[in-house]
Design a protein that fits this description.
Oligomer: single chain
Number of strands: 3
Order of helices and strands: HHHHEEE
Bound molecules: zinc ion
Shape: globular
Helix content: 40-55%
Strand order of the largest sheet: 1-2-3
Number of domains: 1
Number of helices: 4
Radius of gyration: 16 Å
Distance between the termini: 36 Å
Strand content: 15-25%
Length: about 110
């Protein structure tokens, strides 16, 4: 692949990462008004990540549903509840839920 584009692999990966970041920025921007477009941006970002075998950041991963890959917007298609020191995320599109531990020592909540 490096030969084909005349670039080093690191540069291609860097470009792909930037591309993913910009796609998520666009998705965030569109989520309130054109949710279907935000979903499309998530699909594209996932495709880019899979093609170049890039791991998405923690912040990027929490923006979409791990089951149906739709962009999550609290109050629109995401419900968040606290239960037994855990956060329960419930996707209103695919009706599936997942949990995240609520660590009291770390104040950063994902
Ligand atoms: Zn879902």
């Amino acid at each position: 692949m490096a030969k084909k584009y005349g670039k080093k692999k690191n540069d291609i990966v860097k470009e792909a990462k930037n591309h993913i970041a910009s796609l998520f920025e666009k998705a965030k921007f569109e989520a309130g008004t054109r949710h279907w477009l935000a979903n499309r941006y998530v699909t594209l970002a996932r495709k880019v990540a899979m093609k170049f075998k890039i791991h998405m950041t923690r912040e990027q991963k929490r923006l979409f549903c791990p089951h149906c890959y739709r962009f999550l917007l609290p109050g629109k298609n995401l419900r968040v509840r606290v239960h037994e020191h855990r956060l329960i995320y419930y996707c209103l599109d695919c009706k599936k839920f997942w949990r995240k531990p609520l660590d009291k020592k770390k104040k950063k909540i994902n």
